[in-house]
Amino acid sequence: MASDSEERHATLKRCLGVLRDARNDSEQFAALLLVTKAVRAGEVDAKARRQIFDAIGFTFPTRLLVSQQPPAGCPPHTFRALGLTLLACFCTDPELAGHSQILNKIPTFNDILLSPCDPDSTSMINDVYQCLSAVLATAKGPRELVTKGTVSALCQAYLNGGHGSDRALALLMGLLAIAEAKCWQRDAPQLLAVLSKLSGDFLKAEDMTKFELCEVLPHFIPLSPPLTESSQGSECLRRLYKGLVDILGSKLSQSQRDPALKLAASLVQACGAEWIPAGSAGSKFLALLVNLACVEVRLTLEEPDPVDVEGKKEVMTACYVLMEMGIQECLREEGSLLEDGQKMQLMRIMEEAFGAVIFYLRQVKQEELQDPFIFASVRVLGAWMAEETSSLKQEICELLPFLVDYARKLFKEGSPAVSLPQAELVSTEGSPLPQDALRFLLPGFCHLTAEDRPRDILISKGAPALLCEYFLHQWEVLTSEPTAPAPLTSTEMSLQTTCGIFLNLVVTAPDLVRRDKTFSSLMDVLLKSLPLLLPQEHHLVLAANIATLGLMMARILAGSAALQGTQSAKEFFGAAIRFLSQAHTAQADPGSDGLAVAVSPAYVSAWDDIHELWFLGMQALASCIPLFPWLPHAALQACWLEGLSQLLSRVAPASVDFELITAFQGVLVELARASEQCRDVILSHHGTEWANLYGMAALEQCLAEQGGASNTPRGQ
C-alpha cells in the first residue's frame, strides 16, 4: 500500500505532466491550480520542489508574473499570485534563491509590496516576503536588495502598516545587520522615517512594547551623521533619551534593564554623549547610566559563573561602552555634562568595576582567547589604563603578562574572532587586523613604561620586540594608504603612541637599547621612514615622533653599522635637520613695529602636540654632533646656520624665550666645536654679536676660544 508521501508525489507528477502537455489554456490553468494548491498546503518537500522546477523552470512563473489576462471570472492578479507562489516555493532552496532569475525579480517584489493590498492579495504579500527573506540569506542577496531599492520599499511597507508590516521590519533589521553603511548611504531619509516612527512609539508606549522596542531600535541607530545633522534625527534622539529616562528611572527586572542598557550603548556608539542634554537632569541620567553599567559588570564578573557570564556577554559589552563614555566625561575639562563631585564619585565606582574586569581576565583559559568578549574586556581596560594611571596599579601589574601574551597572540595569528555588536565604540577602520588589541593597550603601556616595576614586567615579557614588529606592520599599512590629507587614522595614532613607548624605554633603559637587537631593527625602520614622511605636512606629528625617537636612539647606537655615514643615515639626519630648522620664523609683532620669533605656519596646528618633541629633538641632535663627524656637513647643506643667524638678527630678543635660546645654543655650540666651517659661517653672520645679545655665553666662549685657536700660527 502506497504511503501518503508517495501518493502526493504521484499526484504532483500527473499534474506536472498535464501542465507540460496541456492542449489549451483551461487544461493548463487547471493543472497549475493543483500544483500551487499543493505548494500552498505545504505538501512539497525538497524532492517534489525539484520535480516542479525541473518541469517548469523559471520561464513559466516569469510568464505568469507579467500576464495581464486572468482566466474568466478570476481576480486580475490571479496569474501573478500563482507565479509568486511558485517562486516562493523555489526560494526555499538556497541554491535557487540566489539564482539570477530570482535576483532580477527584486524590483517586481518591491512593486508588489507597495501596491494597494486587498484581502485577496495577502497571499501574494506573504510570498514576496518569503522570497525576499530567502534572497537576504544568500551571499549576493543583501547587495542586490540594497542596490535594487528594497530598503526603501520595506521602509514604506512598514510605515504604511499594512499586511505583513512586521515582516518588513524584521527584513530591514536583517539587512541593516549585514549592510548598515550601504543602507544608510542609499536610503537615509526612508530609514530616518522608520526610526522616527519607532522612537515615537517607544516614547508613548507604557507596556511591554517599550522593552520590546529596546531590542529593535539599536538596529536603526546609524554610526554615521544622519542623527545629529537633521532636525528629524535630533527629534529621534530626544524621544529616545526621554524614553530611556522613563525606563531606567523605574524599578526594573533584569530582563527589562538589559535591553535598555544595550539601547543606551548603541546611542553612545552613534554620537557619544551628545544625545544626553546638558543640565542637571542630563548629568544625573549620565551618572545613572554609568553607575548601572558598573554595578552590572561587578555583579556578573566578580564571582564569575561561566554559565552566567556566557548568557550576559552582549549586555556586558554594552556596559563597557557606557563605562568608556564615563571615563571620557570624567576627564573632559570643558563642556562636560558632569560636575566635579559626580566625576569623583563615578571614578571611584568605575575603579571597582575595572577591578572586576581584571579579576575576570585573570581567570581566562587559553582556549577562551578567541572569544570576542575577552577582546571587549581588554579593550575597555585599555581605555581605563590610558587615562587612570594611579589606581589598581598592583592589579594591572599582575595582569600585564596576560595582556602582552594576549596582544601577541592576536597580532601573530590575526584573530578570526568577530566583535560583539557593542564591542567597538570607535570604528576600527584603517586597522588591518581583525582584532587589534595592541592598539587599545598602547596608551596604557606608554604610561607604564615610565615607571620601574611595570616597565620591567613589560621588558621581561618581550614587549619591545612585539612593539617593534607592530610598528613595522603599522608603518606598512600607513604607506599603503592614500597620501592625501585625511583625518588621523588609528594606524597613525598607533604609530605615534608606539614611538612614545620607545622614547620612554630609550630614556629609562638605555642599556636595553644597546643590547637588544630589536632596537637595531627599529633604527633601520626609522632611518628609512622619516625622509618619506616629512614632505607631507599632514603627517607632521608622526614625523616629529619618528625624528626625535631616531635622534635619541642614534646617541645610544652610534657605533652601529647603519649609522656609519650610510646613505639612509644621511637622509634621515638631513630630514631631521629640516624638521628642526623649519619650525620657527620671523613675523610682525603686533605690540611693536619690529619682528618677533613665531612658530612657522606649517607647524602651528600641530605645535601643541610636538613642541616637547621638538625641544627633545634639539637636545638629541646636539648630543649626536660629536658622535658623527659627517653631521656638520649635513647642517651646512641645509643652510640652517645662515637661516638661524638671520632669524636671530632680525627679531626682537625679548620675543625669544629662554627655553628656545637654550635649544638653539646647544646645537650651535656643538656645530662650532665640531666644524671650523660651521664656526666660520656663524662668525661671518655676526654670530659673536647676536650670541652676546641673547646671552648665549657658552656660544660666545666657544667662538672666542676656537677663533683664538685658529689665529695661532701653525707649529707653535
From TrEMBL:
<dbReference type="GO" id="GO:0030425">
    <property type="term" value="C:dendrite"/>
</dbReference>
<comment type="similarity">
    <text>Belongs to the neurochondrin family.</text>
</comment>
<dbReference type="GO" id="GO:0048168">
    <property type="term" value="P:regulation of neuronal synaptic plasticity"/>
</dbReference>
<dbReference type="InterPro" id="IPR008709">
    <property type="entry name" value="Neurochondrin"/>
</dbReference>
<dbReference type="GO" id="GO:0031175">
    <property type="term" value="P:neuron projection development"/>
</dbReference>
<protein>
    <recommendedName>
        <fullName>Neurochondrin</fullName>
    </recommendedName>
</protein>
<dbReference type="Pfam" id="PF05536">
    <property type="entry name" value="Neurochondrin"/>
</dbReference>
